[in-house]
Fold these 3 entries.
Entry 1:
Amino acid sequence: MTVRIDLGQTEAGAPALMDLEELLATRLLVQGNSGSGKSHLLRRLLEGSAPWVQQAVIDPEGDFVTLADRFGHLVIDAAGHSEAGLQLAAERIRQHRVSVILNLEGLDTEGQMRRAAAFLGGLFDAERAHWTPMLVVVDEAQLFAPMAAGEVADEARKVSLGAMTNLMCRGRKRGLAGIIATQRLAKLAKNVAAEASNFLMGRTFLDIDMTRAADLLGMEKRQAEMFRDLRQGHFVALGPALARRPLPVRIGAVETESRGAAPKLTPLPSQPLEDARALILQPPAAEAPRPRRAPPPPPPDILAQLAAARPAPPPALPPPSVEQQAERQRRLEAVMRQVLADPDSGYRPAAVLYQDFLVRCRIEQIGSKLPDMGAFRRLLAVGKAGVPAEMAEGEDWAEAMARAAPLPEDLQGVFLLLARAALAGAPCPSDAAIARAYGTRSASRARRALAFVEERGAIVTRPDLTGRRIVTIAGPGWETAPGHPEEEAVA
């Protein structure tokens, strides 16, 4: 069913009809200077569409509250509600399909912007099941979607502009049809105005506004002067819901009265000058003396309060016993064996293995004071050497650990691997085994590492008659069995 709203008459005397269903899909922009009949046009449109579609009016001056008596709109005084309350009310309005007027009268500009943004946000964020058609009329839209920053806070301007942009750009899919009215096109954000496909342009005098109005209507610049000559209540209409070509229309009468009508001329009261002087210049009544207030207490000492509120240190825990330390060390070594169980662990950087080690320690709930990087490297060297438990508990292995300490951390694993083989009488580790202990896959780097340890005086290497390598640990004289450098030794 096609619903057409009678706005008034064209110049030819024919009815000026607006297709309501087309309006819901294409939105409307109304422009006109103060006194051009802009609010009268909105009232005519609201009255004509009230029986057919749900309405929401953003009313900064309280001009439209009189619609409630005639058409049953719910009037919400925004000054008495928080932003969160208005957002929730907007969601319920869409749920119950109640027409509403948001009265922003009495609020400063920033307060109007914030509350209007919250209300529009509630309409926009309603659940999909409640996306029914709704006309959203915003009077004085340049207040809520300003072209440039003004005296209000930048955060309030961004929130309000974002809500207006959502209404005009993305509201159609949610059933929201924006109708925005402004006194100055030049003061209205372009991305908001550009989303309207229907226009009703009224009287305006500034060149920049006339030029922009003519551009929106597809008129030539020389025709823009006609907007100065429009009378009150006369507009030029264009758009799929109105007319395919610019069409002058005269807005018809309305059923309800506006609270924002301009004051009428009334005669001045006949008042003798002396009486007027006495009424106006009468001295104010004497005020009763105000009791003196006690001086405010000095501000509290914040540092003292913080010191008093500081929690007491936890009681010192007794030092761990020898058994507890041994158990902790055993668990750390078990975690290290888990880390080294990965075949590629011998070739990964120590920093990567350390992160894996810390994660596994937390999983095992070993405690908060975990080994640092230096202690981890020593554990890693022992783990790579593969020392059996009975050997690790002997005095010889303690001496081997002491002799490895002066060496660089990355070479301690190489030395301990050789010491372990010497203590066990096993063949000398191959270049591949030494490379794994050194953290590389390169046999040449393994040989250089072995030569460096020998230069530090920690070991002595010599070949036997068949060319196999023998390593002697300097000092105690422990010696490995002959082992071929290119064969993997078997422990």
Note: Residues 322-340 form the longest helix (19 residues).
Entry 2:
Amino acid sequence: MPENHLRRPAVEAATGLSRSSLYAMMGSGDFPRPIRIGRRAVAWPESAVLAWLADRPSAVPARK
């Protein structure tokens, strides 16, 4: 089954990050880099974005 790829607006919506935050985090190695899907187009593998989201700490505090 082929993997889905997400363009930048979809990645921004899924992560809640802005364009500048995405590129800053890619530069520091904290976010996966996109792959080239055309001469002037890039996209992120959906599995890489989902894995990054799964590794993020939850914003909801744990119940005691």
Note: The radius of gyration is 13 Å.
Entry 3:
Amino acid sequence: MDAQYVDNFLMANSKYFESHQLSFVRERLLALDDSKKFQVQSLQFKDPTMMLIISVIVGGIGIDRFLVGDVGLGVAKLLTCGGLGIWTIIDWFLIMGVAKQRNLENFNRTIL
């Protein structure tokens, strides 16, 4: 892909990845052929800020973990009422990083 497209993609989607992941994403996009351009454009990323808001509001019943794809942890969090609240508070600090990691995994699955 051309560098202009890659730069535009990164400007529009940099909030969905950790800062140290952006160079990896850039390298992968530059090495990608143009036939995968549509697949990359159609990717749906989880918004880390929205995941934090969801975690604060309904994280005690595991909705945040279900949304990032951690079904087992979501069920466990649901059954324990967020680990009696402790797990819920810990997830307020972790859920944004988990969402960004899932976005990178989704990106890698798409471009392979």
Note: The chain has a mean pLDDT of 93.
